[in-house]
Design a protein that fits this description.
The chain is an alpha/beta fold and 304 residues long. 36% of the residues lie in helices and 15% in strands. It has 10 helices and 11 strands. It has helices spanning 10-21, 40-51, 73-79, 94-103, 121-127, 142-147, 178-181, 239-254, 262-273, 279-302; strands at 5-6, 32-33, 56-59, 84-89, 112-114, 135-138, 152-155, 172-176, 189-191, 211-217, 223-229. The protein has an 8-stranded parallel β-sheet with strand order 1-2-3-4-5-6-7-9, covered by helices on one side. The radius of gyration is 20 Å and the shape is globular.
Amino acid sequence: MYFPYLRGKQFELIAIRELVENDLINDNVVPIIEPVKLTSTLKITLNRFIEKERKIVLILNPQISKTTVEEDEEFRKLLSNEYIIKGHIMNTNSDYEINRLIGAGVSLSELLVINSEASHLSKFKTIFKDVYPSITVIPDDTLFRRSVPSEKVLLMDRFPKEERNVDYKDKDVFFSADHLFYQSESYKGFSDYSIIGNRFDEAGFAPYAVAIHIVYFNEDEYLNVISFVSDTNDDISDPANKFYEAVTYLKKWTANREIDTEGLRQFIKHYENETYPGLGTVKKLSVMHHLELMSQYIDRKLFQ
């Protein structure tokens, strides 16, 4: 199973909402959302997953914001639905936070727990000494693998982050092979931060260059990520032209590739119509492409 980890910003939420609305990802793709804010976009997204009878994980104690999900009545009602998996990030306050969940009627066995710091492993073992979480998400580290014997999911930041968009120019690099080896390494699933990366930046900015990041399978079935970058990158002016330069490179690349996802189709449509969708939509389409591609891969493997 694939558990893409997203930070709940607007266009990331819209990406997974459009995928589930149009049945473009299967039951083996379960997004994990760490919310930035309790927005209407988040509520609509959760409701779409419920309507489609698809599971999604909502982190109840996000570490990137002071959002408290269970204190909002509308979201508290959503949490009672069977398709909303309750997530918890291990931290210094986990004893208190999990005791609150237990007091609210939440069972330890229904939690998905993110455990990424070795300093919290002892607390994890104490809290879950009798009842294990349904899933424990851990990094690719021997200590964690030994400490979490079962129902574990591998989470790694696989996106090779650069400081500036222009630094991605002509980059076509290895992204991940977790999808090939997670089962043989006794993981229930694998997770990553898609083409966004783990580093969280709430504020946007006007870039000098526009970059489109596309993952694809190479001849060994490893995932690579290729970046298509604009040429006129001396200042922040004319982002529409910068996008068209980048998407022109993408269009040429797809001519020799047998890849078909809704995200790619929308990129090509913008190229053909010479339209500029905005930088948020550029990220949305890249995320959509990645998640749908992984869904197609899992489907293919299941029916081999």
